[in-house]
User: Fold Glucose-6-phosphate isomerase from Oikopleura dioica.
Amino acid sequence: MSITKTAEWAKLAELAKTVGQSSIREAFQADPSRFDKFNMKLNEEGNDFLFDFSKNRIDENVMAELRNLAKVANVDAMKKKMFGGEKINFTEDRAVFHVALRHQGDEMSTGGKNVMPDIRAVQAHMKEFCSEIISGSWTGFTGKKIENIVNIGIGGSDLGPLMVTEALNRAAQLDWNQLVSNSIGLDCPALKPFKNHLGIHFISNVDGTHVSEVLKKLDQETTLCIIASKTFTTQETITNANSAKRWFLSKAPESAIAKHFVALSTNKEKVAAFGIDTKNMFEFWDWVGGRYSLWSAIGLSIALSVGFDNYMQLLKGAASMDQHFLNAPAESNIPLTMALLGVWYSNFLGAESHAMLPYDQYLHRFAAYFQQGDMESNGKYVRRNGDEADYQTGPIIWGEPGTNGQHAFYQLIHQGTRLIPADFIATCKSHNNPTGDGLHHRLLLANFLAQTEALMLGKSSSEAKAELEKANMPAEQIQKILPHKIFKGNRPTNSILLSELNPFTLGQLIAAYEHKIFVQGIIWDINSYDQWGVELGKQLAKQIEPEIQKGSTTTAHDSSTNALINFINARM
Ligand SMILES: O=P(O)(O)OC[C@H]1O[C@@H](O)[C@H](O)[C@@H](O)[C@@H]1O
Assistant:
């Protein structure tokens, strides 16, 4: 039965006409304890995680009905299946078991096999390798230490490591106190650096510009290439890897490949065929989805960048969110609540997109990472039974860091015609304090807080009018300008506050969003763990590639595609 035919869905549809249209501003005025009712907190290993969802068009009734919807959709049973290693990715006949990769105990089984010994063995290999590279005991073909790491991969074999290495990019910081002679002392506590001396680079796009621009700055003698590909067949990655090999062999002998190329993959045969010694391969398994793979050997570039211990802290943070998701009751379950709010806006209030707005420059690739995480998982119209869904599924995920976004697209969130629920993410402490008195971080947080308040409150006609009158604007002018100065408000936001950004809290944050995606996929009755939708374009690209030849013409396609190919061929 379609979820839309349930009594819970019908009740929510009714509530959407009342509570869904009601004023959040008035709800706050009517209930001074609203925040207490609609926030959830975690404290793990000295790290605080606050999820405030009080600035939403909800009341207790709506939340209770949403939780009932999760119940009829069997979220709990499916959650147990995922953590139990069952093959819930039925179109690929695979378990969805990335949670095992960050498990802190000794047993997680799928298909009757405890996978923890294999996971620990790969982690031990990663640890040893990281220590050799970071300490410099691993040397290149001319005896020099490795200075630069290049991760060659795409999609899940790129975006996770890229996002996390950027997020944990805090190296030894500029000592602003030395630069600012009249410093008035540090207000922001100095946080521990994560990043070490190694340069980390990423090559993903098949555009030859990407590989060229990255490699031109590097030296073969001191560079390590990590070829990251679950399948080791991805066209972009293999093309880039071959080009990197060509670049390397222009200066080094074939026998040096073992010191400068390693592979992260599930496919031993293809790795060997590429010319990488399988001793230098870090394995993972088919039950790790590409977009959930940063917890596996795919995270090697992260472990190299911040050290193995920090990498394990990232996994530990994710594991703590796993336990919370698995065990916390629905009434205090953060990922479940994030998911239900998304369903509320997508399915009952017509929202088409969801903005992710981290007020933290280190998280500048966070939204890009979850574009794959969410949209490749839940961008599907076919239900598990093969029927077409008669409701909206995955939203469009987008976003940029604040405050930059405020000066770019927030206009549309404030006064546009669309409803855009948004997650605002920030940290209480900053890693950087250029003025010595915490000014930058106070301004950042003031903007973070002001935006969610402004989106919720809006500005009424009388408020806008009073402002204009105070500025002594002539009445005639006020009349003309007034409608443009009104903000309807009532725009929903979640606020997520971390005490600080560190490997542990980052792990928690990523895992929370992963589980949000899981819950939504269950409610929408789709398989969040396959990605057949990316195949058709790949197939056609393979057919078209030989037709792109200087001077040749084609009539094999529709008139547009033919004309485009012929236009290119005439100008190459
Ligand atoms: O790691 P691989 O096998 O090279 O795959 C990379 C990416 O390939 C894409 O085609 C898939 O849509 C992604 O999910 C995947 O992450």
User: Anything to note?
Assistant: The CA atoms of residues 468 and 474 lie 9 Å apart. Confidence is low (pLDDT under 50) at residues 181-188.
